[in-house]
Amino acid sequence: VYSYRHLLQVLAIKLRQMEGATLESMVKELASLTGDLIERRAASALGPGLPPPSQLPLLRTPGTGRGRVGRAVMAWLTPVEGMSAVSSTCRRIAVAPGVEVLIDEQHPALRLNGDSAVIAETLRQALMSVVGLEPVTVPDEAAPDEGVWKQ
Fold this sequence. Notes:
This protein is α+β, with helices and mostly antiparallel strands. The protein has 2 domains: about 5-50; about 90-150, no CATH class. Helix content is about 45%, strand content about 10%. It contains 6 helices and 3 strands, in the order H-H-H-H-E-E-H-H-E. The protein has helices at about 5-20, 25-30, 35-45, 65-75, 110, 115-130, and strands at about 90-95, 100-105, 145-150. The protein has a 3-stranded antiparallel sheet, with helices on one face. A hairpin with a 2-residue loop joins strand 1 (about 90-95) and strand 2 (about 100-105). The longest helix has 16 residues, at about 5-20. It is elongated, with a radius of gyration of 27 Å.
């Protein structure tokens, strides 16, 4: 767990890097400074442009991530247009002997990757890792069982 002093040191290092200081000079400088002095230096370097903690977006709501992860989360959270909450369509996928999975057509696993064979193989591998068994191939006759079911 990092303390407040660690945060101040990281901030001071970044500020000194922006000023062009070398790592050796920063090590010597920070070793002799107390937390109060580091805090004062960081505050004076940042100036009045530093917003108070109450104005910082410290807590983000779900789905507000940025970049690749944010787009992936939004793809999972975005409902499919035209799908109602009253009834839904599910796809039945045979995973292994005695194991079948019903996946709602609205689920991102089917929306983004509609290949049932890939989903079945991924679930099969996960199941094998849980129980520690050798991989078992599902016979091809399992494919006709795969179908679309209404709830």
